[in-house]
Design brief:
- The complex is a heterodimer of chains A (about 300) and B (about 300).
- Chain A has 11 helices and no strands.
- Chain A has about 300 residues and is mainly α.
- Chain A has 2 domains: about 40 residues; about 250 residues, MetI-like (MetI-like fold, Orthogonal Bundle), CATH 1.10.3720.
- In chain A, α5 crosses α6 and α7 runs antiparallel to α8.
- Chain B has 2 domains: about 55 residues; about 220 residues, MetI-like fold (Orthogonal Bundle).
- A two-stranded antiparallel sheet of chain B has the order 1-2.
- By secondary structure, chain B is mainly alpha-helical.
- The chains are: A mainly alpha (about 300), B mainly alpha (about 300).
- Chain B: InterPro entries: MetI-like (IPR000515), MetI-like_sf (IPR035906), Phosphate_PstC (IPR011864), Phosphate_Transport_Permease (IPR051124).
- Chain B: GO terms for molecular function: phosphate transmembrane transporter activity.
- Chain B: It is a multi-pass membrane protein.
- Chain B: Keywords: Cell membrane, Membrane, Phosphate transport, Transmembrane, Transmembrane helix, Transport.
């Protein structure tokens, strides 16, 4: 009798906790979207930000965020996928593999401000580049590689053993098996992981504050020469991203419409992360269905 | 008949491509090995460069490391500059432990809900909710903390709103999904025989959870908490926006405070590279690095103790 009542109480507590989590998410999204969406107009998205007047937009910040994301993924995906292949297929159990695993865990758990400090030291001061897009992208690469390695390793390990053994039994080399059997099978998993990692990179700020900087030069969107000073494609220019912009308008507080700009930018950021999430799920299931010819 | 004509050509193809494939194998193998080496190099480079730079305030500027860590007087500018970072270490540890204290029961509770009480609802609905919470960028958490939580604390509780307390709440919300995700994996990986055995002995669900499942999953649950703490400890911007950033030790939980990450974030940009103050900030970066390594070793130790 007594234990039955405690069981009921405990169940009630667990339901309450689950309800708290859902309420938390609903409140956060409601707050961000209800305050932010009215700010997000075409004008807000396409006008440059202002450093001290009201009415600035987020055009450059949005472009910078996307551009840094693309460059980071161009560097990270090949490195991470190759690293994951090594860990899944070539690494022999032993001290060296153990050490590599420790390294991956360490990189994965580095606080992003520490990654930012490392970037500041190497890509800003020692190389003498100053605040640059490429410096920011390389810093982001450091904390994104472990994610990609883990995702790839898991995806490759989840390939059924028979597939791999059948290929090897036909006398095909290990590398060729990886290329033609394992990677295609693991592709949806890797893609989903890469998109989710993109969401994380898109919202990252602390690692970018002192590597990509807090400012953006005046950009001329008609100039597509990547070596020109005012070209948006120049990777050796400073670039404030959207997440950094939210932080800097709040901390510096120089513009009168801090709340409006930060609300709008937060909404754009959260919607972007949401889209990455949905895209990852959707693409993953679509490709999986195509490959496995399932229902 | 048709097969006979195919076989020699396939054989020929194999013979023709044999050498090619072997080279392929060597190239492929070296490519992935190089990527693995890059990860080792990156880890070692981060450690060595930050250690070398972080030690400069002791080796070049002759600051006493003991005084640096234990003094409560942080006054980096002027004639009688003194560099004591104890208040910031205290702030970092306080927000980390307090937020873990709140997030641990909630996170593990949610994990148990998802794995034991309502597995279907958990997987279909609660799991995506938690994944979305993980995805919200930390500046957004900081911003909401700044515009919602800080005024709320200011109006209803002692202090000016910016406080250790606000930092703890923001961090709790941030690490809650992390703790929940890992704890859920831990609970789900428990073998079903444990549950069935206990229930067959007549135990209620709560007795099963408390006496059988939680003890069995304990090392993994602790891992979840430690990883949550690691995230809380390293978070910079969200905390910086709500904690107030003062250099004194907080007298109560509603006082303003500062952490290692917030002081580094605020000051590394506008101090001269190579100056004493700048070097002491790099030393804080080194401390952050060392403590994040400590967290990893705790996690490794715990995963060695996993029973199941």
């Amino acid at each position: 009798m007594n234990s039955r009542i405690t069981d009921r109480i405990a169940t009630g507590v667990f339901y309450t906790i689950a309800a708290i989590m859902v309420a938390l998410l609903l409140y956060l999204f409601y707050f961000i979207l209800s305050n932010g969406l009215p700010q997000v107009t075409w004008d807000f998205l396409t006008s440059p930000s202002s450093s001290y007047q009201a009415g600035g937009g987020i055009r450059d910040q949005l472009f910078n965020s996307l551009y840094i994301l693309v460059i980071t993924m161009i560097i990270t995906v090949p490195l991470g996928v190759c690293g994951g292949i090594y860990m899944a297929e070539y690494a022999k159990p032993g001290k060296i593999t153990n050490f590599i695993r420790t390294c991956i865990e360490m990189l994965a758990s580095l606080p992003s401000i520490v990654v930012g400090l490392f970037g500041l030291l190497i890509f800003v001061n020692i190389t003498g580049w100053g605040y640059t897009i490429i410096g920011g992208a390389l810093a982001l690469t450091i904390f994104n590689i472990p994610v990609m390695v883990r995702v790839t390793e898991d995806a490759i390990r989840s390939v059924p053993k028979e597939q791999k053994e059948a290929s090897l039994a036909l006398g095909i080399t290990r590398w060729h098996t990886i290329k033609t059997v394992l990677l295609p099978y693991a592709f949806p998993g890797i893609l989903t992981g890469a998109i989710l990692a993109s969401g994380r990179v898109f919202g990252e700020a602390a690692a970018l504050l002192y590597t990509a900087g807090l400012s953006t030069p005046t950009l001329d969107y008609g100039n597509w020469n990547p070596f020109a000073e005012n070209s948006p494609l120049n990777i050796f220019r400073p670039a404030e991203t959207l997440a950094v912009h939210i932080w800097s308008v709040n901390t510096q507080g120089l513009i009168p419409d801090v709340r409006e700009v930060a609300n709008g930018a937060s909404a754009v950021l959260v919607i972007a992360v949401l889209l990455f999430n949905i895209l990852a799920r959707w693409l993953g299931s679509v490709i999986h269905k195509k490959l496995t010819a399932g229902k | 008949m048709a097969k006979a004509s195919v076989t020699p050509s396939a054989e020929e193809r194999l013979i023709l491509t044999k050498k090619n494939r072997r080279w392929d194998e060597v190239r492929g193998r070296s490519l992935v090995t190089i990527c693995a080496i890059i990860m080792i190099v990156a880890t070692i480079a981060v450690t060595i460069f930050l250690a070398q730079k972080g030690l400069q305030s002791f080796t070049v500027n002759n600051i006493n490391p003991i005084a640096y860590l234990t003094s409560t007087n942080w006054n980096p500018v002027g004639e009688n500059a003194s560099f004591g970072i104890f208040p910031f270490i205290f702030g970092s540890l306080a927000v980390t432990f307090l937020s873990a204290l709140i997030a641990a029961p909630l996170g593990i509770g949610a994990a148990i809900f998802m794995s034991e009480i309502a597995p279907k609802f958990g997987k279909k609905f609660l799991q995506p909710v938690i994944e979305l919470l993980v995805g919200i960028p930390s500046v957004v958490y900081g911003f909401i903390g700044l515009v919602v939580l800080v005024p709320l604390v200011r109006d209803n509780l002692p202090g000016i709103g910016f406080s250790l307390f606000a930092g703890v709440i923001v961090l709790t919300v941030m690490i809650l999904p992390t703790v929940t995700t890992i704890a859920t994996d831990a609970m789900r990986s428990l073998p079903n025989s444990l549950r069935q055995g206990s229930l067959a002995l007549g135990a209620t669900r709560w007795q099963t959870i408390r006496k059988v499942l939680i003890p069995a999953a304990l090392p993994s649950l602790l891992t979840a908490i430690v990883l949550g703490m690691a995230r809380a400890f390293g978070e910079a911007l969200a905390v910086q926006m709500v904690i107030g950033n003062t250099r004194d030790l907080p007298g109560s939980i509603f006082d303003t405070s500062a952490t290692l990450t917030t002081i580094v974030t605020l000051n590394i940009g506008h101090t001269t590279y190579g100056s004493i103050e700048n070097n002491t900030l790099w030393s804080m970066g080194l401390i952050l690095l060392i403590i994040s390594f400590v967290f990893i070793f705790i996690v490794r130790y715990l995963s060695g103790r996993r029973k199941i």
